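Hi R.,

Here's the chain you asked about this morning:
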Amino acid sequence: MEPLTTNLVEWGVAELALSAEAESGDRHVVRPLAGGVLVAAVDGLGHGREAAAAARIAVATLEEFPFEPLPVLFHRCHERLRDTRGVVMSAAAFHAREQTITWLGVGNVEGVVQRVTSHGGRVSQRLLVRGGVVGGNLPHLGVSLLPQHPGDLLILATDGIRSAFAEEPTLSGPPQQAADRILARHARGTDDALVLVVRCLGGGL
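And the predicted structure, written out as tokens:
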């Protein structure tokens, strides 16, 4: 697969529906916008048709209002999902001018940032997620602010992926290759699974 890129990020995604289900309840968003990029991984509760329907509503909302602050965007999703199973999701907004990443997660979609240290080592940071359900029990939506540097890697994984994915050495090589490898090695096989790998390129849009 050809690499998917903007001037600010390149990314790859790998996903797998639970066997016997016609469609996955796990979805992703990568939405370039003026001055940045919004990325997200969404997991409709459970699996099957109803989970997929909830995830589609969340994705459509994220894509409609990508320029809004993450707490506002999560509230919009929450209101539109009230009559569904709801979703858990994590999202990050890359800001080119400020060279920052804004992060917000509700539920068990994990986020990990990997970066190279000044001494050439690798550091991995798990990002904060809050318990709750978008469309059900929405927690207080405090955002985290992180610096971004060229080469930094953000990995989002739904709960169909074992948490050990964070230890994968993914800083080198194409994001798509990393996503495919994480899915192959860490998919639980008992739920839908999705991995989104995003590398910061450090450019503008």
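The CA atoms of residues 126 and 163 lie 10 Å apart.

Let me know if you need anything else.
M.
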